[in-house]
Amino acid sequence: MIDCHCHFDIMSSPEQYIAQMSRNGNTIIGMTNRPCHFRQGLPFIKENNRIRLALGLHPLEVGHYEDDIKEFEKLIDKTSYIGEIGLDFSEDGKNTAEKQIDCFEEILRLLAGKKKILSVHSRQAEETVLEILELFYQENVIFHWYSGNESLIPNILRLGYYYSINEAMTLSNHGRRIISAIPKDRILTESDAPYNKRSDINQVILYLSMLWSMSLDEVNAVIERNFKRLISRLAEKE
């Protein structure tokens, strides 16, 4: 199993979860919502080849932006994974939209010229996220739990970006239409646990198996191949 976006740092027993996933041979990319969370969690996963921690600054956490961006810069070379970052213009985030944009742009400035894989949040801000990404940083991006307009998908694909999909997306008509519009070679899997209560990646694989008329093993092979292709970009400029 490949989980490109979860939040094991806020689970009830992170160390137990990490140990179990590692025993099962799963690949997990853990997101963080603030740089201090990354700093605290990094020692627990340093020696694990399949479990990685991403450096994040969630758009709904921009109240700490001025201090957090300084720590973000100090930690930026500690990992190849960045997330969760992005914009959120929903009811939860609309009052901080301008500050979110400033924060997102500053993060992308700090990442310029660095080999990283980004997991981005774009709820009700998809067009703005894409415009900023294209302006500041044009590669190695995963749109996490995309829920925007389907008409924007070709523009996202044109830039070489990926999508990570979860069980909740397979259970809504809009989510299913989005999944159907994404080519097989741009799809990755995620749980977004524990925020997402419908987070069973096995159910995602089962859904894709039916959608693509492929066996479960074939679907897993596609997801693994996509992930390996993405992470191979990290070494291309070495």
Write a short abstract of this structure.
With 238 residues, the protein is an alpha/beta fold. It is built from ten helices and eight strands. Helix 4 links the parallel strand 4 (81-86) and strand 5.
Describe the SSE topology.
Layout: E1 2-6, H1 14-23, E2 27-30, H2 35-41, E3 51-53, H3 65-75, E4 81-86, H4 97-111, E5 117-121, H5 126-136, E6 141-144, H6 153-158, E7 162-165, H7 167-170, H8 173-181, E8 187-189, H9 201-212, H10 216-232
Parallel strand pairs: 1-2, 2-3, 4-5, 5-6, 6-7, 7-8
The count of domains is 1
Q: How many helices? A: 10
Distance between the termini: 28 Å
Radius of gyration: 17 Å
Shape type: globular
Helix content: 40-55%
Report on the architecture of this protein.
With 238 residues, this protein is α/β, with parallel strands linked by helices. It has one domain: Metal-dependent hydrolases (TIM Barrel), CATH 3.20.20.140. 43% of the residues lie in helices and 14% in strands. It contains ten helices and eight strands. The protein has helices spanning 14-23, 35-41, 65-75, 97-111, 126-136, 153-158, 167-170, 173-181, 201-212, 216-232, and strands at residues 2-6, 27-30, 51-53, 81-86, 117-121, 141-144, 162-165, 187-189. The strands form two sheets. It has a five-stranded parallel beta sheet with strand order 4-5-6-7-8, sandwiched between helices. Strand 2 (27-30), helix 2 and strand 3 (51-53) form a beta-alpha-beta unit. Helix 2 (35-41) crosses helix 3. The longest helix is centred in the C-terminal third of the chain and has 17 residues, at 216-232. It is globular. The model has no long low-confidence stretch (mean pLDDT 95).
